[in-house]
Amino acid sequence: MKGGPAPFFISGKYGMTSNWALPRSVNQYSDPDAENIHVSWIEERQFAAIKNKDGSSIKTSRDLLHIARDPRNDILEKTYYLRCTNFDFVNLPNLISGIEIKLSMNRFGRITDDTIQLTLNDNLIGENQATLDLNPIKIYGSTTDLLGTNISLSDLQNSTFGIVLRFKSHPNWPHKSSALVDAVEIRIH
After folding, report:
1. In sequence order, what E strands does the chain have?
2. pTM higher than 0.70
């Protein structure tokens, strides 16, 4: 067929790529053995409010809380878990070839990952993507990496689908500093 440019597709072996999506629900919780806590970002003074970095992304207004060390000889301070779900996906592909997670945060020089893992129906799924890298903006996954899951389109559209984050002090430089999260985004290929 002559005349006119070829159709434009955003990367991907299977066609379109979704826009970077943001969570519509965020909550914080502890280990099963620890104090049972839910800190609402909207109502509780402990976290104050959802703050918008750029008019659309979620930002913590105070640093994430640390839990008590257990066992006592564990020198790595860890935060509570942060569950981000109900993402506002646009342009989801029909066939899923990869997932990317973009995390923007202030690590105060020494905060590293403990848990960076997908969640569905309040269960962790796939492989933990945590690394010791201290970059303030990190991307996990790729256009061809499903992060150890066999995720379906209906799973992605489930309001319980999302990501669970947890941070800890760097093993080479233990400390009690915490982290400020600027944005958590997911893109589907």
Report:
1. 23-29, 51-52, 58-59, 81-87, 99-106, 111-120, 123-125, 137-141, 162-169, 180-188
2. yes
